[in-house]
Amino acid sequence: MATHEHEITEPVDLCLPDGSLNPAAVGWSRKPLHRANLRGWGRTKRWEYWCVTTPTHLVALTVSDLDFLALNTVYVLEFGTGGREFECSSIVPAARGVRLPDSVAGAPGSEDVVVGPARPTGNKVRVEIRDENAGTRLRARCLTRERLPLEVDLLVSRPEGHESLSVVVPWSEQRFQYTSKHTALPASGRVRVGSEIVKFGGEGNDTWAVLDHGRGRWPRTVDWNWGAASGRTDGHTVGLQFGGRWTEGTGSTENGLCVDGRLTKIGEELDWRWSAADPMAPLSLRTPSSGQVDLTFTPFHNRAVHTDVGLIANRTDQRFGHYDGRIRTDDGEEIAVEQLLGWAEDVHMRW
């Protein structure tokens, strides 16, 4: 079932010279083609979010520029009963020293990103996103609350021809978001916490990276759902990318399936059903008309972030867990999804 949305196949500027949304930029693409030539201050938001998972651990790195401040984060989760959780966050007033490029950071032809001191102390965070011939290098350093040194060194591969999902979501001529979501990218490397080293990748290489690249001009308050997963199931390498609520009424969605490197774009809004009272309850995601998605997500951990620091108020329930059910590609192939590791989040943001 082909989407009704316009597919973009040539490079395009996100904005017109006056900073408003370029109508030619509205649509989706199978690789990043937009140049986020944003103008204006106060409502402009830029970020790079990488999450790399193994069957036992995950690590997430965030570099963000929200105009009036930057929030850069390193997060590590060890799965299972008694699993440890580490989070280091650095707030940078006026986003001083944080500069994100107009295209995907660390991709070929784009700029590298480096934030924070080389030897961070206190609440400071060092994050590096660099282009290497073999892929994108992710490095990070910080001190945990327990004063343990935490170091990340990962390499995300770029398989030839692997497709991603880039979408422009237009609320209005002055409020819009460009998002580029990349799933099911092989990764390898290691994470060190104190004297303990955790290897990512290796034999079987069941280590996968997901990128959320965002550039846009946002309203003051917004609510969204985001779900993603990567891994092997039913003889295929599968990446799931789903969004909800924030795209409603815009004519765009950020829903897609990446199967063996090929993207299926889904133009329907998904039906998300979850318990507002119990963040650990299973939730369901379905396409109400096409039947291309019929999944249940069962969480095993909730990363709850509830903050209010004046200019920014954030309520996030980022649930990590597994997807089960079925999906169908554009060519009609039905794929059984079994225990695909990922997340589903529910966010309210005032920024």
From TrEMBL:
Superkingdom of origin organism? Bacteria
Pfam families hit by this protein: DUF2804
Q: What is this protein called?
A: DUF2804 domain-containing protein
Taxonomic source organism:
Streptomyces pratensis (strain ATCC 33331 / IAF-45CD)
